[in-house]
Structures are given as C-alpha cells and as structure tokens.
Amino acid sequence: MKKVIFNTPDHKVIFFEELTPASAVQANQVLIIHKDEGMLLDPGGHKVFSKLLSELAVYIPPSQIRYIFLSHQDPDIVASINGWLMTTKAEAYISKLWMRFLPHFGLDSQLEGRVVPIDDNGTVLTLGGDCKLYILPAHFLHSEGNFQVYDPCSKILFSGDLGASLGQDYFFVEDFDKHIKYMEGFHRRYMVSNKVLRFWANMVKDLDIEMIVPQHGAIFKGKDMVKRFIEWIENLEVGVDLLTQDIYKVPSG
C-alpha cells in the first residue's frame, strides 16, 4: 500500500507500507520528492527491494534519487542497499559507526565510495536546490548511531524506530490513549533510557511539526497529536531505567 501524505506542486511525500513479507516485522518506507530530486528513507530488506523500486518509479525515475537515508544499521533498513546503489546514482547516508558493517550486507567495494558517513552531530542536506532536510541526532533511540530526518518543507519528522507501533490496523493515530498499548512494550524494551528521551524531546519540541512518521506502524498527524507523543515519550521509563539485578543471573541448568 502507498499513500501520498503531503502534496504540493514542488514537494511530495509518499509513504509505503506492507511491502514486507508476512513473517517479517512490518516496516514503512518513505520517498521525499522536491522538484526533480528524491530522497529515499530506510529502504528495507532484499524482499522489499523489487516491489519498492516498482512503486517508487510511478513517482520519480530511479535515476533522480539523490539521497538514500539509513537511520541506523538494522537489516530492515539497510539490507537492500547494494541494490539501490546499483539502480540509482544516489549517495547513501548512515552514521559513521556503521560504515564497516555495510559490507556484511553485501555492499560491493566499487559502491562504497557513494556511502557517506554522518558525524554524531548530524548534518543538513539540500534537495531539489532549495529544500533543506535536517539530519537530527537520535542516538540510543534505539541504535548507538541513529538519526532522524526533519523536513521543514512538509513539516514532517521522520522518526525511525521512535514512535513505532506494532499490531494496530489503522494508518493515522486517532485516539492516542488507545494507541499506547501498541507502542509501550516496544519502547520500554528497545529505547535505552529516559534521559535520552528527554534530550530528544528538548531538541524537537520547538520544531514546527505537523506529522511524526515512524519506520513501523501508524502516523501521528496534527500538532495536538505530535505534542501528545512528545509529552508521553518524555516521561516514559525505558531500557536501563527498568533493569534490576534479577535480570542478570546465571541460568539454572
């Protein structure tokens, strides 16, 4: 399934879901188009590649994809990177921490020069000549080298695994309180600490955000829903906040 979630004459955002096989974790892919250039976000694994390439070509020729953004190193994000670099002229951006991990996903040596390491403090990329895309630090949410994309042209924050939900059957979150049950378990296990969540909330709360689009699950649409999510995550205990010595025991055998 695909859906155009932002559309003006110069700027489009297309959201793809349910391209993954049923046995795999659900994952979203996103295409940002500004004028005649595109950025593909978190393109997915090998079994997504051919379907996404076909769907994407409806909106823009693959040769006009300028950037491929990889929020972190998980296989549901980077496993297809060799195919994308072979079929486009794009540069791929990923945390500098993961540069030497990509060859383990089959990245050919002759393509390595088109993978650009992102320093810990992030960067700004320009798409279509005049749309600045902000690559925001989101380390330990959940990956040690992790980034998000803020697109001020659409006022969308692409949040990666932060905000992910599993098992819901709707596209946009309409009732935040009822949606919590689809998010809470994932965040408590995968996110590292409340301290990091508070740093993140302080970074983004003054941005002009109309939508938060996670890599898994439903979209938060509208300023009120965005605010609810930021306030919820800012106060959530997760990861090491919840650990006790009881977890760290030699198994009985």
UniProtKB/TrEMBL annotation:
Signal peptide: none
Matches recorded under Gene3D superfamilies: Ribonuclease Z/Hydroxyacylglutathione hydrolase-like
Superkingdom of the organism of origin: Bacteria
Domain Metallo-beta-lactamase, first and last residues per copy: 26-216
Listed InterPro entries: Metallo-B-lactamas, ODP_dom, RibonucZ/Hydroxyglut_hydro
PANTHER family: HYDROLASE, METALLO-BETA-LACTAMASE SUPERFAMILY, METALLO-BETA-LACTAMASE DOMAIN-CONTAINING PROTEIN
Entry protein name: FprA family A-type flavoprotein
Organism: Hydrogenobacter sp
Lineage: Bacteria, Pseudomonadati, Aquificota, Aquificia, Aquificales
